[in-house]
Amino acid sequence: MNRSTRNQTLMGWLLLLPAMAIFALMIFYPFINSIFISFTNRNLLYAKSAFIGFDNYRKLFSDPNTLFLIWTTVKFVFLATLMPFAIGLIWALLMNQKFKGSEFVRGLTLVNWIIPGIAIGFLWSWIFNGDYGILNALLGKLGLIDKNVIWFGGKQTSMLAVVTARTWQMFPWYMAFIMGGLQGVSNDQCEAARIDGVNNLQMFRHVIIPAIKPVLILILLLGTIGNLQHFDLINVMTGGGPERATSTFATEVYKKAFKEYSVGRAASLGVIWAMMLSLFSIFYLKRIKED
Amino acid sequence: MFQKTLGFRIFFWSFLLVIGFFAFFPQLWMISTSLKPATEMFSFSFFKYFDFSNLKRVLSDRTFLTYLRNGIVVAVASSVCSTVVSVLAGYSFSKFRFKGRKTVMALIMVSQAFPQGLLLLSLYPMMQKVGMLDTLPSIILAYIAFTLPVGTWTLKAYFDQVPQSLMEAARVDGSSEWRTMFQIIIPLAVPGMMTIAIYSFVWAWNDLLYALTLISSTANRTLASGMVFTFTGEGGNDWIGMMAASVIASIPVAAIFVFLQRYFIAGLTAGAVKG
Description:
The complex is a heterodimer.
Chain A: H1 3-37, H2 55-62, H3 64-95, H4 102-114, H5 117-127, H6 134-141, H7 155-183, H8 187-195, H9 200-229, H10 232-237, H11 249-258, H12 263-290
Chain B: H1 6-34, H2 53-59, H3 62-95, H4 101-110, H5 116-129, H6 136-161, H7 164-172, H8 177-185, H9 190-206, H10 209-214, H11 223-230, H12 239-274
């Protein structure tokens, strides 16, 4: 090894040292350790725990609640990714028109995304409030309902409320990425298509969508990963209820570990959760490597 | 991009109104509710009252002020530490070639997808063992760790843009590696550092899961988790108080965002797309 390579190696690792220390301590070790915990009967209330093999997993797979949890998680992730994606795409197209004040409007939209989840959770709980919420009042005035809907009482309506809040929070994020993608659509290409006589819809489908497709796939992946991890809004608005109808892996692992104290079982659920996540992150890694 | 046909105009205006209402009415409803007198809590009036006593009431509450202070301390500390650590790591990845570099880079990237709830199951007993449970550093460390992947990759992208010739020139001039790094290259990445500083600040300010579990005493709670405790049970029907607290919790991040927007959007999207 010559002097320069040795120098590079030394400096390279030296600069990495703080990051590696934090990474090892706060992410890598806990990850491995949590997998280990999933094979124990660890409980938050007792200091001692024993190795119990695959017992936690066996219980998990024989529990009908697990299947239901996977179903509600998939439902939440699917809706909470596609809804804000669609609205974010339309909003990006509108904001890209660069009308007077569009920059201000764009900035104001992003406020939804930047403010704390707790504030958003409170706000939408208030809007969806069955007795005094503004949503019931508005729907009543429009003649769409004749008596108040108790949104957080029903399973489907609870899911609707949570997904709506998440959509409100996240569509600006999708918009920001899509606007970045739209900047890369060349004017020449649009002009050329126009001369060929394409209309707006064709322009959108055959020129714009193909041009921003890499960004769209990327944010769908990142959005899915984010929703699989999402905790705040569900925890604040419904706590996973009623009757687990809005539970996801994120809220269920938290509940099992910190409300029921069975950390071992929570960990086994968490490992399955991690596998679901890794599926999407492999896709994500592949995508950014290609670009 | 589009021809302004009649169809386009209808599309444009209808969606501008509908999505605009969906986006902005709730923001305004939050503010409007926070400004109502208690007797008007259940009225559907919209910006009819401008009663600032609710905001004053929340802001003069001792406990709330403790939460607020802790929230600021945690967010600032996380932001500064995360930026420094990310700068060093991003620089290392961008400017040095060494064995194991690619593996470490991939590992840091993949870690983003580890479920935070799963890590928490080990971090909780770990913090307990070293006596750091219920201390601010415990969550600060967690926030640094979680913002590290995006931080490192975004800053690496910034350093990659600095031409190699600039470093060569500095070397020829006899500048040491350290001087080149701190006096020539790092100053060029200030916009990227701003991005990460804001990103980590917002993350720490908004986080609920870790603040809810690793912190157990009122004296150490941050704003987000403190609000959960203030407004559950009996406080759960104080919608005016909840909206007032929400407005106060939103102001710092919204303000930072409005003033520093240009750093934020371009920087973050670039980091995630280019990697």
